[in-house]
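Input structure tokens:
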């Protein structure tokens, strides 16, 4: 595995901070410290190993719990004095039993699309069909939602064959918005689609 070697002369007592990030969700799981020996063992075994300041020895995460951090990649920062290590975690990362050391759930987040999903859910459950387009469409049932997805898909295809990029993006946004509604109507979210696509990865 290729990465820039840390500048150990900059370290405090030969230790360098190592930020641990989930390779799939991109969530930060924990912060630990490594010395040169821990970094070498990590690259050799494929399991993240730290130097434990409390135990005063090398410590492979998961050596007792089985909740290993399987190595994906290592990056050294621009000053060569901290590491970003991406991993595939096995089980919760924190010793308290939580996914991260900040007591967060290590779920996928799709940025604004996740916010939009939450807004759709909020308006659907509020069920104010007079004020909310989302609520009114849900009130008409899944067949109407599915019909809208079909209509928006046709309009997107039509605009794709034209030369007006602005209209294509507009219709694409409409399609995605209504598709998110259809997913919720069927009891699914983008995370379910992500999981299905991941099963197909080869």
């Amino acid at each position: 595995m290729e990465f820039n070697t840390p500048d150990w002369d900059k370290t405090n007592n030969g230790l360098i901070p190592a930020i641990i990030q989930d390779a799939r969700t991109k969530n930060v799981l924990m912060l630990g410290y490594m010395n040169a020996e821990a970094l070498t063992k990590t690259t050799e075994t494929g399991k993240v190993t730290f130097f434990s300041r409390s135990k005063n020895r090398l410590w492979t995460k998961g050596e007792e719990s089985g909740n290993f951090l399987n190595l994906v990649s290592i990056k050294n920062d621009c000053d060569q004095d901290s590491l970003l290590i991406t991993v595939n975690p096995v089980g919760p990362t924190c010793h308290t039993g939580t996914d991260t050391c900040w007591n967060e759930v290590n779920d996928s987040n799709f940025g604004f699309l996740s916010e939009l999903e939450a807004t759709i859910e909020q308006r659907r459950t509020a069920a104010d069909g007079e004020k909310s387009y989302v609520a009114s469409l849900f009130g008409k049932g899944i067949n109407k939602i599915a019909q809208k997805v079909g209509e928006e898909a046709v309009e997107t295809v039509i605009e794709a064959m034209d030369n007006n990029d602005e209209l294509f993006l507009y219709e694409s946004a409409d399609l995605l918005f209504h598709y998110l509604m259809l997913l919720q109507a069927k009891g699914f979210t983008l995370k379910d689609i992500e999981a299905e696509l991941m099963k197909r990865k080869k």
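The radius of gyration is 23 Å. Residues 49 and 91 are 16 Å apart (CA to CA).
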